């Protein structure tokens, strides 16, 4: 049988059956016995910190860049009459908002991940 193993105790040989415990998410400390468990937990915390910083800076970068781009694109409408000025701003706002927010999202996420990596890295002594 596949789960059988041979156990030798003294002079007698016994065949025992081992049960294989397979879980969906096994404990990483049991998978890598040579690696200390505290090191794996530190890596998990580092990934969580970097992910949180990247997502939060991407979100705020999206908000700020969207607002800045809308203001800059709306300046094209400043020399129009009042009605045309409002209509121009109304037409320019969605595209400018989309352009600025996607740019801010990418830039903020990349810079946030970079800063998170710098913050959580191990200090190396030259």
What would you say this structure looks like, in words?
The chain has 126 residues and is mainly alpha-helical. The chain is 64% helix and 10% strand. The protein contains 3 helices and 2 strands, in the order ββααα. The chain has a two-stranded antiparallel ribbon with strand order 1-2. β1 and β2 form a beta hairpin. α2 packs antiparallel against α3. The chain is rod-shaped. The two termini are 55 Å apart. About 4% of the residues have low confidence.
Keywords:
126 residues; mainly alpha
What is the topological layout?
Elements: E1 4-9, E2 12-17, H1 28-31, H2 37-74, H3 82-120
Antiparallel strand pairs: 1-2
Helix pairs in contact: 2-3
Produce a short descriptive summary.
The chain has 126 residues and is mainly α.
Going across the major beta sheet, what is the strand order? Answer: 1-2
User: How many distinct beta strands?
Assistant: 2
Beta-sheet strand percentage? 5-15%
Low-confidence stretches: 15-19
Indicate the radius of gyration in whole angstroms.
29 Å
End-to-end Cα distance, whole Å, is: 55 Å
- State the helicity in percent bands: 55-70%
Rounded mean pLDDT is 77
Helix and strand string, N-terminal first? EEHHH
* Helix-and-strand structural type: mainly alpha
The main β sheet shows up as: 2 strands, antiparallel
Shape descriptor reads: rod-shaped
How many DSSP H or I helices? Answer: 3
């Amino acid at each position: 049988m596949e789960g059988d193993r041979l156990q030798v105790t003294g002079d007698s040989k016994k065949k025992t059956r081992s049960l294989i415990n397979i879980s969906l998410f096994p404990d990483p400390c049991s998978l890598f016995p040579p690696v200390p468990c505290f090191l794996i937990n530190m890596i998990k915390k580092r990934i969580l910190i970097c992910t949180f910083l990247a997502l939060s800076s991407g979100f705020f970068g999206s908000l700020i860049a969207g607002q800045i781009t809308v203001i800059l694109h709306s300046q094209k409408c400043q020399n129009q009459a009042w009605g045309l000025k409002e209509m121009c701003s109304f037409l320019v706002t969605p595209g400018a908002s989309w352009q600025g927010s996607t740019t801010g999202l990418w830039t903020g996420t990349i810079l946030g991940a970079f800063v998170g990596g710098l913050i959580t890295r191990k200090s190396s002594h030259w």
